[in-house]
Specification:
One of its GO terms (biological process) is pyridine nucleotide biosynthetic process. Keywords: Hydrolase, Metal-binding, Pyridine nucleotide biosynthesis. The chain is an alpha/beta fold. The chain has one domain: Isochorismatase-like (Rossmann fold). About 20% of the residues lie in helices and about 25% in strands. The protein has 4 helices and 8 strands, in the order βαββββαβαβαβ. Bound molecules: pyrazine-2-carboxylic acid and zinc ion. The site of zinc ion has 6 residues, from loops. Zinc ion (ZN) binds next to loops.
Length: about 200
């Protein structure tokens, strides 16, 4: 049984100065680089959206960011335009040790559906293929870090637990968006799903 560090969405747009900046997002880059030495594998996830993505408030006339709309796959929070494919905002933080990655997994590239989790798009059905990759490499012990704690980190960790992986979230190497109590309910959900918070 081997151990993987999964670094979620440590990209320019989620760091201070970015389009969907998470407070203190840049503070975790150094600690995450240091953690990489202690794992058998490093996976980076990258949130990438086409400009016409359905999660952008801009693409819903009259809508504002953080508003919830109904999609065929369920409720969807609308976000500011962020991580548009081919723009600097979609790039990783410039200090992140990207060359240490075994795998860079992109998600959110389909215009009609968002993907918070690194395992499934927001319909909870469309697979990204990550579980298969990890299983084939016998990477069954997973530690999650990155952005945002209460969205992409949480959804990824909960899916991983449901899929039978051993899952830990290293909270000091995460930062949250925290809209409408989202961090508290995220931590609650993770504990109930059997995710270890350290
Ligand atoms: C994320 C909102 C929209 C995240 C991505 O990485 O947590 N949050 N897209
Ligand atoms: Zn996104």
């Amino acid at each position: 049984m081997a151990r993987a560090l999964i670094v979620v969405d440590l990209q320019q747009d989620f760091c201070p100065g970015g389009a969907l900046a998470v407070s203190g997002g840049d503070e975790i880059v150094g600690p995450i680089n240091a953690l990489m030495d202690h794992y058998d594998a490093v996976v980076l996830t990258q949130d990438v959206h086409p400009r016409n993505h359905t999660s952008f408030a801009d693409n819903h006339p009259g809508a504002e960011p953080h508003q919830i709309v109904r999609m065929p796959y369920g409720g969807q929070i609308l976000w500011p335009v962020h991580c548009v494919i081919g723009t600097p905002g979609a790039d990783f933080h410039e200090q992140l040790h990207v060359n240490r990655a075994d795998l860079i997994l992109r998600k959110g590239f389909r215009p009609e559906i968002d993907s918070y989790s690194a395992f499934y798009e927001n319909d909870h059905r469309t697979s990204t293929g990550l579980a298969g990759y990890l299983r084939e490499r016998d990477l069954s012990d997973l530690s999650f870090v990155g952005l945002a704690h209460d969205f992409c980190v949480t959804w990824s960790a909960m899916d991983a637990a449901r899929l039978g992986f051993k899952v830990r979230v290293i909270e000091k190497a995460c930062r949250a968006i925290n809209v409408n109590g989202s961090l508290a309910s995220a931590r609650d959900g993770m504990r109930r799903a059997g995710v270890e918070l350290v």
